[in-house]
Amino acid sequence: MNFSDHLHTDKIFDILAENASRLGLETYLVGGYVRDLLLKRSCKDIDVVCVGSGIELALAVAKTIGPDTNVTVFKNFGTAMLRYRDWEVEFVGARKESYNRDSRNPIVENGTLQDDQNRRDFTINALAISLNKNNYGDLVDPFEGVEDLKKKIIRTPLDPDITFSDDPLRIMRAIRFATQLNFDIEPKTFEAITRNKERLSIVSMERISTELNKIILTPRPSYGFKLLFHSGLLQLIFPELCALQGVETIDNKSHKDNFYHTLQVLDNACKESDDLWLRWAAILHDIAKPATKRFNQKVGWTFHGHEDKGSRMVAGIFRRLKLPLNEHMRKVEKLVLLHLRPIALVKESVTDSAVRRLLFESGEDFEDLMKLCRADVTSKDNNKVARFLKNFEQVEQKAKEVEEKDNLRTFQPVFTGEDIMKLFNLTPSKTVGELKIALREAILEGEITNTYQEGMEYVIRIGQSKFGLVAKR
Ligand code: ATP
Ligand code: MG
């Protein structure tokens, strides 16, 4: 196979080839870029490998591009990176790697292209395209990577036990690529993943979670989670999720398998939104079901309070997985806590005040909460599904009406705490706090509308009757 036609489609390849030739460096495109080119996936990262100094080549290329081209050099790794138009170009010198048992950082020596292809994780990531004059555009495929792309399989170039044991992050990468590309993992490779799973303990949690998040950001993450589960990896990195698996039966009454239900909710959520944190909320929405499970003779299985307990489990899970402990986490906590509320709402006739409360509590995440609820409908009974979805539409319709009326989204009473203090000449105190709560409740209950005038009148009235306060004129 030859790709010289493709290489004429963008100036960057000419620039790379000219500089390589001038410096006398044997140079290739390699890795993800070549793989994605063959798969016709768009790719904005170019990996370049040369036999010699990748840093030297990067500096020369930067000079050609223009005086203000920034080159980021990682001396320790012998790599360099620069940007050109939309491209992010990464340079590395071809190398040979050997590993210590207790570190995934290799001992590195200079090597040939073949050495460099040997150290790559998967056959489909070890493809190279020549930028050299004598074979410009030729594909170098020593491990039948093209064949594997056609067969849609993930396979290691060398003995998978060695590849995974050397750098166990590759275990996560295998599952991540399988999920992103919708490929199978070749059986011997998968067996080695299972055998070497304990090696993951030398990989930092940040790196593991980065891969996990890439799995979650695919269109169908359930596939990745099933691979993680069946290889035994999920038990190591995310035992709380594994605990959802299984069905118990007493007196002929069973509950659903909450693991597979959760995966389905996650896939459903992916159709509704690209938001990583909404997807995390889908993963965690039922996480406290094992902890709250009870059997009751009359009603069967219950999971009372799982939304509340689940929400309180989020921080611990995020901390262990080294996910951010910031507003993203708080959004996940909120969505888990509220995930039953819209369902509870549609059971009754929907009152304004109930909708108003939900809007107030979910705030800017109301839409995402509704997306999560829709994703949570996994019944196989089509009539039931249709009925639920229609009810949710009603809740949303109602929410729109209430919102237009009440100005609730960024819910703050228009008549503020400051206003209350001025009105009665008070300093911050318990009384002010209680007046604020009373005002908020009156708005949520629909007794008054959220305007300055009605807020003030209400506070004057309550201040007088409850606290004996007299408004300043
Ligand atoms: P993407 O950028 O979509 O994640 P990619 O294949 O480009 O996919 P990168 O992490 O950018 O992945 O790495 C670039 C290339 O470097 C890979 O294609 C692979 O050849 C090699 N590589 C990266 N990480 C490893 C690793 N842990 N072990 C072996 N080779 C690796
Ligand atoms: Mg890449």
Any chance you could write out the topology, listing elements then pairs?
Elements: H1 4-7, H2 11-23, E1 26-30, H3 32-39, E2 45-51, H4 54-65, E3 71-74, E4 79-84, E5 87-93, E6 95-98, E7 107-110, H5 113-118, E8 128-130, E9 139-140, H6 145-151, E10 153-154, H7 160-166, H8 169-181, E11 184-185, H9 187-195, H10 205-216, H11 221-231, H12 233-237, H13 239-242, E12 249-250, E13 253-254, H14 258-272, H15 276-284, H16 289-292, E14 294-296, E15 300-302, H17 306-320, H18 327-338, H19 341-347, H20 352-362, H21 366-375, H22 382-406, H23 417-424, H24 430-444, H25 452-467
Bound molecules: adenosine-5'-triphosphate (ATP) and magnesium ion.
Task: Note down, in words, how this protein is organized.
This protein is an alpha+beta fold. 55% of the residues lie in helices and 12% in strands. It has 25 helices and 15 strands. The protein has helices at residues 4-7, 11-23, 32-39, 54-65, 113-118, 145-151, 160-166, 169-181, 187-195, 205-216, 221-231, 233-237, 239-242, 258-272, 276-284, 289-292, 306-320, 327-338, 341-347, 352-362, 366-375, 382-406, 417-424, 430-444, 452-467; strands at 26-30, 45-51, 71-74, 79-84, 87-93, 95-98, 107-110, 128-130, 139-140, 153-154, 184-185, 249-250, 253-254, 294-296, 300-302. It has a 7-stranded mixed beta sheet with strand order 3-4-5-2-1-8-9. Strand 4 and strand 5 (87-93) form a beta hairpin. The longest helix has 25 residues, at 382-406. The radius of gyration is 29 Å and the shape is elongated. The mean pLDDT is 92.
